[in-house]
Design a protein that fits this description.
single chain; about 250 residues; alpha/beta; Rossmann fold; seven-stranded parallel sheet; disordered C terminus; NAD(P)-bd_dom_sf; SDR_fam; SDR; oxidoreductase activity; oxidoreductase
Length: about 250
């Protein structure tokens, strides 16, 4: 079976992506930062979908550790066909109050770690000689700013740009590189984990999104049907990005 590696795969969007890819026929390796019990539950869900599952704990602030875990997973799984850079977090400190370490921590996880894993995955895919897929989970804030989220917005803008450059550089090897940019999704990050999305007057579709709706887009990008799509950022935000600034 082809294989996919997903960072931050034990809960929320990452778990939904891992399960969706398993149902699409991929063996899955995923990383997690905390809560081993949730990782075991996610692995069991992947196995029930008919795929192999392996997982490893890693703190992606240590980008070298993340790279070692990735290489170990590829060795065990035997190959790498899809990489999904999903792990990430944000900050709510205003720029004028933010210490450099806080800024750097967000950027390390949200941009530097994805860069190192993209590079490693692309090299493996080139050596394998049959192409591959890289999907970076950015954010609607790859495209629009958000007050109080300086490092997060900077990192997601950066990852969006890196996605486009990588798509151009890797096209000759049959490797597509795309971003999926979620808006407000009902997960732990937004305080709506494991429940129906809350109604929201600030979103044109009137609600937050579901993790499965993001996972479906990633599974499509990993499918043969998306073989001619590269360098794109697919925004899944219920129309939020198109509200004019004065109405936000």
């Amino acid at each position: 079976m082809p294989t996919a590696i997903v960072t931050g795969g034990n809960s929320g969007i990452g778990r939904s992506i891992s399960v969706a890819l398993a149902k699409s026929g991929f063996d899955i390796g995923f990383t997690w930062h905390s809560e081993e019990e949730r990782a075991e539950e996610a692995a069991q869900e992947i196995i029930e979908a008919g795929a192999r599952a392996m997982h490893s704990q890693v703190d992606l602030h240590d980008v070298d550790a993340g790279l070692r875990v990735f290489e170990d997973m590829v060795e065990v799984l035997g190959e790498i066909d899809v990489l999904v850079n999903n792990a990430g977090y944000g900050s709510s400190t205003p720029i004028v109050e933010m210490e450099l370490d806080e800024f750097r921590g967000v950027v390390d996880v949200d941009l530097i770690a994805p860069f190192t894993l993209m590079k490693a995955a692309a090299r493996r895919m080139i050596d394998q000689g049959r192409g591959g897929r890289i999907v970076n989970i950015t954010s609607v804030h790859e495209h629009i700013p958000k007050i109080g989220s300086g490092p997060y917005v900077a990192a997601k803008h950066g990852l969006g740009g890196l996605t486009k450059v990588a798509a151009l550089e890797l096209a000759e090897h049959g490797i597509t590189v795309n971003a999926v940019a979620p808006g407000q999704i009902a997960t732990r990050m937004t305080g709506q984990e494991d429940q129906e999305p809350d109604p929201s007057e600030g979103i044109p579709l009137g609600r937050a999104g579901k993790a499965d709706e993001i996972a479906s887009a990633v599974a499509w990008l990993a499918s043969p049907g998306a073989s001619y799509v590269t360098g794109e950022s697919i925004v899944i935000d219920g129309g939020l990005r198109h509200i004019s600034a004065e109405h936000q």
